Amino acid sequence: MEEANKIVDAINKVLIxxxxxxxxxxxxxxxxxxxxxxxxxxxxxxxxxAIDQGYIDSSKVKKWNKKRGKLPRYFTKKxxxxxxxxxxxxxxxxxxxxxxxxxxxxxxxxxxxxEHINFEQKKINICDSKxxxxxxxxxxxxxxxxxxxxxxxxxxKWLDIxxxxxxxxxxxxxxxxxxxxxxxxxxxxxxxxxxxxxxKVDQSQERTQKINGKNKTFIVNRYLYxxxxxxxxxxxxxxxxxxxxxxxxxxxxxxxxxxxxxxxKMNDKKMxxxxxxxxx
Length: 280
Fold this sequence. Notes:
Blueprint: H1 2-17, E1 20-21, H2 22-31, H3 40-52, E2 61-62, H4 77-86, H5 90-102, H6 106-110, E3 117-118, E4 123-129, H7 134-137, E5 141-146, H8 152-162, H9 182-195, E6 201-211, E7 214-223, H10 229-242, H11 245-252, H12 257-260, H13 262-279
Helix pairs in contact: 5-10, 10-11, 10-13
């Protein structure tokens, strides 16, 4: 906790002088030596905990200029085919597959342990969702994801490939006793999207950062499609097939129904399109 307090104090000092985004704060603290390189995920967890508990004034944190009520992006059937056709690593293929059929976040996929897959009950136990350092930071949640028996052979085939003694469902290439890093999966998925022609920029933001006493301006892009879109895709498929927002809520593990209601808006938009075609 001493290290976390040090980082929170440093963040508050930064925000006294300037309004900055989370990414800008991380990069600034990195340059100042407050945080060691390669600890971005750790910083994000401490930052979110500090926001949630009111240790940081969120009004001073610069946010991306998102459009209010913006619908989540999801892949069409054609786009899914395009993606899986270019994914050339079995480990990445199963990662994408699990994210799609289980609605898993990238960190949940990477931190999944083999022992958390219950074939008898057809369930996957997701531990420490949104925070893999729950024991240290004191916050986080667990949830259960159910899967259909039709995908069991695919999961078992992958377990045969990695070996039954593997602790992690996605072991690291260099260190099999450790899980695959979410950053590595993100970077490779970005390459797959580019090969599939889906590497499209949604919005860009200009940032200025002082490095070695000099201001450096650069452009940061936020892309239209990300790994997280697999989760949105299955949620939209479930709602469009059932119109049951509670089923979607349970599938995604949202605590608040309001968070899930955005998928109902997606369906309303589709209905307007259908009516437009009928009367057009």
